[in-house]
Amino acid sequence: MYTVFWRLRMSNTPEPSESAVDTHSADLERGFLAKIESETKIEPKDWMPDAYRKTLIRQIAQHAHSEVVGMQPEGNWITRAPTLHRKIGLLAKVQDECGHGLYLYSATETLGTTREELVTALHEGRMKYSSIFNYPTLTWADIGAIGWLVDGAAIVNQISLCRTSYGPYARAMVRICKEESFHQRQGYGIMVTLAEGTADQRAMAQDALNRWWWPSLMMFGPHDSDSAHTRSSTAWKIKRQSNDELRQRFVDITVPQAEHLGLNLPDPDLRWNADRGHYDFGEIDWDEFWRVVKGGGPCHLQRMATRKAAHENGRWVREAAATYAQKQGADQQAA
Ligand code: 3HC
DSSP secondary structure string, 255-295? Predict the structure, then answer.
């Protein structure tokens, strides 16, 4: 319908009056909202409000950046994994994360932007990646805690996003969630081995839990009351559950897992609330959260320096692929 409008506009028909254009825009908006209401996926070729497009580019690109930057803390332990079995599992996981980033960059490109623009925005600090990847991986137990907690939190968030209103994002989530469950299992498996190991191994697992628990809760974003985007993202069914709802769900799932490991969660306010049917838990350090989100995280400079260097070192691969594609195209035309 929108294309028809533009074709009419471009043909030699007389310019429509302002009110005709307004009526048409209102019709387009009504059509969009009717699709959202009826749970019909919005596809790249469909008309959509600029603000819907803009917030999708923001969120999906940040998600993609997070997957790619997130390869660094875990990649740090591939050469130091304690066994070949653990090395193979970690290698597979890090490769998966890269693939997740590529799916998500591709989903973002369907919204009319380019990967180069998105990567440049990240490198120039105009786009973010998840706060969680600002923290160092100090011991092997951190790799267990990341798989268990970070991928566990990601699964809670991403299962909800499987129902997001934008088609390419929802479909990318279905595939990513299948791989995330392997990530979470390999992380929890590492924590089980350590928790059932020597006193030193148990202490290493407890230390990692102490350091990764609160940053994992921060992955779900600020409280709903402080969330700039939740209201519009929920109205457009980009978000199907709020930050606080998903955080609560993650806590409710994870506390029994920590109990099974015999490890203590670093939150003195954590307790089961039978009236609510959920765990009550302490307040997040929001100063820490916003400091990290605004680029003050402990590893931010290192993460960005590594990301930029990798991008520069890969320039020749991109140029070779582009030249090859151009040559292929020329050969096909000549044939
Ligand atoms: N890290 C960095 N920035 C964050 C953040 C976090 N944990 N939580 C919120 N923010 C930012 C938002 O981007 C927004 O800033 P912006 O306007 O400059 O983009 C601001 O804080 C306000 O937050 P809102 O709640 O209003 O923002 P959203 O509605 O976008 O909600 C979100 C935040 C829940 C993270 C949402 O963007 C989302 O669900 N994103 C998709 C999932 C995702 O990005 N996950 C990253 C984890 S990495 C991962 O899953 C990889 C896995 O393999 C481990």
Answer: HHHHHHHT---S-TT-EEETTTTEEE-----HHHHHHIIII
